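Reading a protein record of the kind used here takes only a little practice. These numbers are not coordinates but entries in a learned vocabulary of local backbone shapes. Here is one such record, which you should read through line by line.
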Amino acid sequence: QVQLVESGGGLVQAGGSLRLSCAASGSTFSMNAFGWYRQAPGKQRELVGTITSDRNTYYADAVKGRFTISRDNDKKVVYLQMNSLKLEDTAVYYCNMLQSERLYWGQGTQVTVSS
């Protein structure tokens, strides 16, 4: 069965970096597009960025130039590299994947940015 598991979250100071991973087991990984989302306390879940099967990427304006999405098709892992972190980046970060007309979500990983 398909399972998405995010990891790599934690506490980091403003200006620092963190890399999140999304491992997609049981998937036809290479042909699927992935998205990263985040949800801060009291706010709606928002799109952070996406990556297609051809490795084309899209980023929300709030993270453009600071975050980078990449994928390793052999390891079946999607990454979110976060640099120059800001306090407003604090949120639970979620990975999702579209496969065979079904949408899959991971459990999320907490990122907390401190001053």
